[in-house]
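Worked example 3 (structure in, sequence out).
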């Protein structure tokens, strides 16, 4: 779930060439000037998603809650660069909200009129070619409780480029939400925002986890009946310079893992970062195809929203990804495979002592991996007290009301 901070979004890089780099920045600054003088509608809220392409993450869940509870109070709009989303989010246009294509006159004017705008990634990523003035309230919902360094705190980060990021992105945020006091302090340090502009509300996407902990999606179960069995999800984080290694064990054996899954009537789902989907689909795991029918590629085209999948998961396997921090709210077993911990700490950096904050076994062999899964299937409450301690560090609230605290924040900004 991690995107590297950058001055221009990947979408922008695909659309423009180097000679037009300056022109793109001029357009951003031109919009910022217009935004400064344009009349604002105090009731107009605009939501955006990953690079303008996806309806997902914290912005999706907050959008849905605002539509459900506050639609009479606000004009609620989702803006996207993806025309297909305009049709799929509100196909018959009968709902009491709008989905607007950004690259249209209506989209342009909507952004200028918006009083509050929500993001989930940095800089100009979610709404390309646009940066707002101080007259627009911009709230960064973010896309994962960070345990790794982000933004200017990344080891090896280009300081000049970070300054440009701050000019176009970070400095524009009125508020940034966090999930706990320690998360707020770490975030403020990483992104360089004053501590009073980082607000502890909890994550809207985790409202869904809390609500559906014991009542997973029936639609998802109907599509994938195997989810009623024991489910082990292997979801490592993204590596910028290398492909993630699933099963990085010298004694690796698909046959042994399959035998374990068969014996326990369990399924192992493999889910990398979005950038790793093709790699997983093509069976690029140690050069072998997925073996048997109990090891499944749970890529983003299969399970678009991992939050809907997590309530079905009995054991989560991960490394430095923020997904396991969300998963703490379910009080279920965690296994860690930090095969490149030393290298990752040198190249990216972590915010905490990894061994102190990870409440589960760290495995480095196929044998240890199978033993850890077997132990947790036999006793899911094993290590529960340790998980509860770590959960208190990263989650201030477990009431499923993050959306309400953000609503109160929005009301103060009008």
């Amino acid at each position: 779930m991690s995107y590297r901070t950058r001055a221009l979004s990947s979408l922008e890089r695909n659309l423009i060439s180097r000679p037009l780099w300056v022109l793109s920045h001029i357009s951003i600054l031109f919009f910022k000037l217009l935004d400064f003088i344009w009349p604002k509608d105090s009731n107009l809220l605009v939501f955006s998603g990953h690079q303008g392409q996806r309806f997902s993450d914290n912005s999706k869940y907050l959008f849905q809650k605002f539509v459900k509870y506050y639609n009479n109070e606000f004009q609620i709009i989702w803006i996207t660069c993806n025309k297909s989303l305009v049709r799929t989010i509100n196909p018959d246009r009968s709902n009491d909200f709008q989905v607007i294509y950004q690259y249209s006159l209506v989209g342009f004017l909507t952004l200028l009129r918006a009083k509050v705008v929500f993001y989930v990634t940095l800089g100009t990523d979610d709404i390309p070619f646009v940066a707002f003035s101080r007259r627009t309230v911009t709230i960064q919902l973010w896309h994962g409780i960070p345990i790794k360094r982000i933004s200017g705190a990344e080891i090896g980060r280009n300081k000049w480029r970070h300054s440009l990021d701050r000019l176009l992105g970070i400095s524009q945020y009125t508020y940034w939400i966090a999930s706990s006091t320690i998360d707020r302090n770490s975030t403020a340090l990483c992104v360089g925002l004053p501590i009073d502009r980082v607000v502890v509300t909890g994550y809207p996407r985790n409202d869904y986890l809390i609500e559906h902990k014991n009542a997973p999606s029936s639609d998802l179960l109907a599509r994938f009946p195997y989810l009623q069995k024991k489910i082990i999800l292997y979801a490592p984080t993204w590596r910028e310079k290398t492909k993630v290694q699933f099963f990085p064990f010298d004694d690796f054996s698909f046959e042994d893992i399959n035998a374990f899954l068969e014996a326990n009537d369990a399924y192992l789902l493999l889910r990398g970062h979005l950038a790793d989907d093709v790699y997983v689909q093509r069976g690029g795991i140690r050069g072998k195809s997925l073996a048997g029918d109990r090891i499944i590629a749970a890529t983003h085209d299969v399970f678009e929203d991992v939050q809907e999948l997590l309530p079905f998961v009995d054991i989560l396997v991960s490394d430095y990804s923020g997904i396991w921090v969300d998963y703490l709210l379910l009080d279920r077993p965690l296994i860690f495979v930090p095969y490149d911990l030393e290298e990752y700490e040198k190249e990216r950096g972590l915010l905490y002592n990894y061994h102190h904050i990870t409440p589960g076994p760290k495995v480095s062999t196929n044998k240890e991996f199978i033993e850890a899964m077997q132990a947790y299937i036999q006793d899911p409450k094993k290590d529960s007290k340790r998980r509860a301690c770590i959960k208190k560090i990263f989650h201030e609230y477990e009431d499923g009301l993050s959306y309400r605290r953000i609503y109160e924040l929005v009301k103060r900004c009008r």
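Notes: The chain has a mean pLDDT of 87. The CA atoms of residues 100 and 106 lie 7 Å apart.
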